[in-house]
Amino acid sequence: MKHIAQLNRILLRKIFFTTAHAPELPGHSPDHAPAEKISFGKAPALPDGWHRASYAFVCNPDGSIRWLYPVESRKPLFLRLYNSAGWRGRLFSSAFRMAFALGAQRLLQHGVVHIDSPQPNRIAALASNEHAHQHAIFTGTVGENRKAIVLLQHADKKASFVKIPLTPSAADLVLNEFHTLNSLLGLHFDKLLFPHVRRLEAGILLSDIRPPHPIPSSRFTDLHLQALVELTRQTAFTASSTGFLPTLGILRQLQTLQATDSFGELDPGTVLQLRKNLFALQERLSHIEHWPVSLSHGDFTPWNLYLCRRAIHLYDWELAKTLPWLYDAFHFIFQTGILLRRESLNSIIGELNHLRKQPAIRNLLRHSTASFDELLGFYLLHNTAYYLPRYIVQKPLHRQAHWLLHTWAQAVDWWLAATHRPLASRTRRPAETSNAEV
Q1: Is the pLDDT confidence value at 30 over 80?
Q2: pTM score of the predicted model
Q3: CA distance 232 to 314
């Protein structure tokens, strides 16, 4: 418990006072905060002239702090930062809403922490500068890309979100989201809505794009497809495979896999066979000289979007990059099938075949330099080659990682068997197209 307590103090110091030596965002200046104090439980005496912010907190099962909200809060605002999918999530949310309604929230909180400093801490200053009436904090997911999310609610009940990177790699992702969202401003979309973004010293501020009545759905609908086709058509071009950064990244990941002789918590036989199959998949796709590419969200899943009747409201663009067409559609189908519904590979293949038959897909691929199968092969190769080396070294490895890797391994094996004939002999090679032709 002492170790967890120490980690909690380090985490709070990063959120309230420092940027953990993260690379500077444009316009960011290093934060040289004076001495500050973090106290749990009973509030200590406050030095003259100092400022105090007291927060209730809720922990993860291991005792690390997950959410923070001011002790004077009368509503569980932090639940806006919680994905309540599934019965456990709904039960958790209902319990906190009921506790707050009865004024008994202290029964569910895990403690109180006091943040004392000579000047207002970063979160207090942020809430004041943005004229926030209330706020709450999600401390982020543990890992190399950890970032805190601050929800700001204003007097008119409108909300905004601030992402504060807590590691250098998280700062890179936040900066990527900033540039990506700005690049979309000049484009027109009917079926896709995304946040407006503004640069702050601590990170970025994002507008709230939650619709009044979001429709719960974990299935890939026609609206999802229409939104992705819009994004593809607006940003499409062809990229030479020799200088295409994702292709180069795949080669580096395969080299890493080739050099490793450890398997972490994974089954050695599974890793060795999957590694062999990934090399075979890369060889099978090596004849493609140009890929049809466009901007991809990178993590197009139900937990990063809201579905309403007329449009997809898509947020969390940190992983956005240029990737081959249909990458986001494939990702949605695999992630939801594996993580939300625990479907067999045969069920996922059925969804992929349904996608293949859609008129919008057929029309799009008439202008493609790669077939549906080749685009799917790239997704499987890129995604699996990226995560397999990370899962080998990750300890402990969460059970969802085992689910994902098991299905990816089956999918790669299936793809190689289903496309055993040389793809070049089966695939029409249209000429390169410009954005206007797509």
Answers
A1: no
A2: 0.87
A3: 15
